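To close the section, here is one more complete example, presented without commentary so you can practise reading it yourself. The ligand is flavin mononucleotide.
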Amino acid sequence: MRVLGIAGSPRRGGNTDLLLDEVMKGATSQGAEVKTIILNDLKITPCQHCDACRKTGRCQIEDDMQLVYRELAQADRVVLASPVQFMGLTAQMKAMIDRCQALWARKYLLKIPPLDSIKERKGLFISVGGQKIANLFEPSLATVKTLFKILDITYAGELVFPGIDEKGAIAKHPDALHQAFLTGQKLAADF
Ligand SMILES: Cc1cc2nc3c(=O)[nH]c(=O)nc-3n(C[C@H](O)[C@H](O)[C@H](O)COP(=O)(O)O)c2cc1C
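Output:
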């Protein structure tokens, strides 16, 4: 059982990082092998819509996204963590997701599995936002669910907290980090 965490915040040790860490600790406690990718440390060029992937099923941009494709293929569980920025995902997370257009081309145009190895995968979404408004997470959720669908990753749910703004504020929430740990346990155990 391999759990891949993908951190989309530019802020290290911030709220989504803390939640992601707890999910990964929960998964580790169930014996899972975990790996976290920090998107802000990678060089991922935004999709150029060159359409090369429509013929080859492969993105021709040779940057750190090639590593992300490999990690996605190896994962049994994928945990995406991104705070809300301007009502959506961070630019780092959106750039990674847009580059999965190559995997869309594999599946829908070339009729081959989107990820190299065929596995029963599940995906979780983690988010926080500073505001407390209805539908705060809806735009992000729409994008994340679309990605998981394209990658044949079963949606396992979300862990989202509104009204969390200052760095580390999530640690003051009565049970958010505990919920995250339990969610990580369940994600890894539910195999
Ligand atoms: C560029 C930027 C845009 C943001 N836009 C929103 C927003 O539209 N809605 C919201 O509720 N919070 C917004 N926030 C606040 C963050 O979601 C909030 O500070 C969050 O706790 C950051 O999480 P992190 O520590 O994991 O990075 C924004 C923050 C930044 C830096």
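Once you have examined the tokens, check your reading against these statements. The pocket of flavin mononucleotide is lined by residues 9, 11, 14-17, 83-87, 128-131, 136, 164-165, 167 (CB under 6 Å). The chain has a mean pLDDT of 97.
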